[in-house]
Amino acid sequence: GENVEQHPSTLSVQEGDSAVIKCTYSDSASNYFPWYKQELGKGPQLIIDIRSNVGEKKDQRIAVTLNKTAKHFSLHITETQPEDSAVYFCAAVKNSGGYQKVTFGIGTKLQVIP
Amino acid sequence: DGGITQSPKYLFRKEGQNVTLSCEQNLNHDAMYWYRQDPGQGLRLIYYSQIVNDFQKGDIAEGYSVSREKKESFPLTVTSAQKNPTAFYLCAAGQGATETQYFGPGTRLLVL
Predict the structure, then answer these.
(1) Does A102 sit within 8 Å of B1, measured CB to CB?
(2) CA of B54 vs chain A CAs: smallest distance (Å)
(3) pLDDT of residue A20
């Protein structure tokens, strides 16, 4: 089955600096890669996603890159702000008999220090 | 939370008791999912349903049961057979195999 590795598990950055979270996946059939942000006690919220036919996608301060050959994808947050502090999950998704088989990374706890 | 509601926010279970977690969506999505979240383990799939009156076991279905009588609703029952039920439970909905899953706010289950 699919295996998604995510690192680092914790990340502290100064406000205004950039943060990078990296994930690798094992199943070449995975073709969709969402990133979720989870604040304490709440459900995960989708922040950005990328499909396998695209190498990079950007939305304001957030960007995601995908290297299909190496089977890794990364989340980049620039000009970090205290409200960016949360747990971030990557995921790899493939079609499994008509439903989404989603494999999540274990999460990265990001702390932005004011 | 994308039109998905979960209740209650907190739930306490006594030993030997079955408890039911509610999940309702107004996104008109066909597929619904239940995940369990434990610290340091990410999200693990309990059950999923692609259409009404049909559901399939996920990776950790033992000790849980579900029903899907309506498109909008996908309740999860944590039975007494689940020996370690303390966790954060998340419901999600998605459309087909290529669309994003949207999550509810979660229910935290605690054992008395």
Answers:
(1) no
(2) 12
(3) 98
